[in-house]
Each structure stands twice: as C-alpha cells, then as structure tokens.
C-alpha cells in the first residue's frame, strides 16, 4: 500500500524521511539534502527502547488565570451606619437597639408615634401597628439615652390590612412614613432599628416605608426563638416591666408592674398550657423599659394606676397608667463595650445565640 508523501520542507526536500534513510530526502542539491535531513531529524519522533516511534503528545495550553473579582461595594447593611431607632418603650425595640450597637451601628436618634392628646382613651389606641400604652414616658426614655426624640401623631387608621401594603391615604402606615422622612432629613440616617419578631403585618409595612425612603430596616430579632430571646433580654440587663395584659392567665392585679425576670417562669408555663407567646407577639402583654445598658440614667416609677380597658371574665385587658416618674443616676454603669464582647452579633433576619442565661436561685414563682 502506498504511503502518503511527507510534506516538503521550506528548503525543497521532504521533511519526513524514513528511519533507514539517515534523514536525507530525495531530490535537490547537497545543501537541500542537508537542510532537509536536519528538518527531518527534528520532525522525526524518537522511538523508545528501539520500538516504534511514538507521536509526541501536544502540550496542554495553559489555562488562563481567573481574573480577581473587583472588591464588593460597601452594602447598606455594613457596620457603621447612622441609625434611628423606632421605639415604643418596650423591651423588643430596646433589645434591637442593643443589637444594632453590637453590629457596629450608631444610634443617633429615636422615633416614636403617639396618639392624639385630645383622643378619648389615648393611652390604649386600637392599632395593628403601634404600641401606645406608656407613651407619656417616652420623653424620659429619650432623656435617659441622651438622644434627640422625633414624634409624630397617629392620625390615620388601619385601612389597608392586606398581606401586601401599597401606599394608602388615611392609613396609619403613612404616619410612619412622615415620621421617618423627617428623621432622615434632620439626622441623615441610613438605617432604622425595628423590634419586630413575628408579625409579618408590621414587617411588610415597615419595609414598604423604608423602601420608599431608601432606608435599611434592621430587624435583628426577626423570627428568633422567643424563649431564647426572653432569656437574652433578661441576661442583657434590660429592666422592663409589664404595663399591659390581654391574655388568658394574666391577671391585672397580680402581673401588672412585674419585671421580665419575675414573669419569665410564669410566661413559660402559660406558653405550655395555652400557647401564649412568651415574648407577647400575640398581643398577650406589653412592656416598658426602665433601664438597659444603653441608658445613661434609669427611669423610676413613683406612682401609677391600673386602668381596666375590657373587663372580660377570662382574659381581661388592662394597663398601667404612669402618674409620676423621674430619672435617677445609675450607681453602676454597665460598660456596653464589655457587654458587646459577650454578645454574639446577629446577621439581618438571622438567628443566633447571644448570652448564656443564669437562672437566679430561690426566685419566687408567681
């Protein structure tokens, strides 16, 4: 069978002479044969141990080095934002502020929505969004933290109660929009501290307002385990008292004015018996914070009275009305930086353990 002719070299000889030809190709002069022989010798594959010639493997092409990604731009949730805290006076908004500080943010202002002063029964406003019980003490709350306070009167009501909120004139959510708009203009804040834990109704509306104002909502307590949260709040030196009860098993005469530390065992018991939310996310109770590591002074309640809002035989609704309060210097100030070393910072809308809880021995059961 006839073999295919080897290709000619640039000098005119054939570049692929056989093994027995000594490398010289046919035709051409001596110079051509010499040049062709050199080319053939270079092109001829070497035989291993006298065997047949092997075809050299082509060298793999070097893979291109992956380009380094450009450094990510600083996100809105990066530490160091100027933050305004949306507060009701309760434990949740207070503890979320502490988490903001642990995460590296700076609380620069407080924001609160209050009922109209001339409204009948203004202490307890029928609102899906806002806690209004204890609103008379919010001024002292801000003074205890030494921060500017921005307040706005609730003029709207719950108009759009759907799962998805859209801008609706006359809705109480628009009062929140006006409040946060003012705070952003005055304080140049980038984020809003929100103490929401379980309510999708509140979350959806706060996110709607923040999106319209280009603000970042910071809800570090969102969907946390409530038993863990309550323990952490107590361990984090939040001194909050019950100022409203509205659930089976909660007695206005027994439980109003009690601290979280005193109420914790009983709330856990109610949770097992009746499914009560331990942190009060079902509206079972509300709290007011008298002291925490963020306070430079603590709030002292000199006198108060119990107001029965609904005398239900099984689950009466009642609240505390503060009559006299004052601020008092703290004898021992807790170093927040030291406390922050013990507290594990949570990612936005994430869950994590914060502080170990040490149960006091000999605590009386209510």
From TrEMBL:
The keyword Aminoacyl-tRNA synthetase does not apply. It catalyses: diphthine-[translation elongation factor 2] + NH4(+) + ATP = diphthamide-[translation elongation factor 2] + AMP + diphosphate + H(+). Pathway: Protein modification; peptidyl-diphthamide biosynthesis. One of its GO terms (biological process) is protein histidyl modification to diphthamide. InterPro entries: Diphthami_syn_dom, DPH6/MJ0570, Rossmann-like_a/b/a_fold. Residues 58-68 have a biased composition (Basic residues). Residues 1-12, 31-42, 69-78 have a biased composition (Low complexity). The keyword Nucleus does not apply. Residues 81-314 form the Diphthamide synthase domain. Keywords: ATP-binding, Ligase, Nucleotide-binding. Residues 13-30 have a biased composition (Gly residues). One of its GO terms (molecular function) is ATP binding. Signal peptide: none annotated. Its EC number is 6.3.1.14. Residues 1-78 are annotated as: Disordered. Belongs to the Diphthine--ammonia ligase family. This is Diphthine--ammonia ligase. It comes from Canis lupus familiaris (Dog).
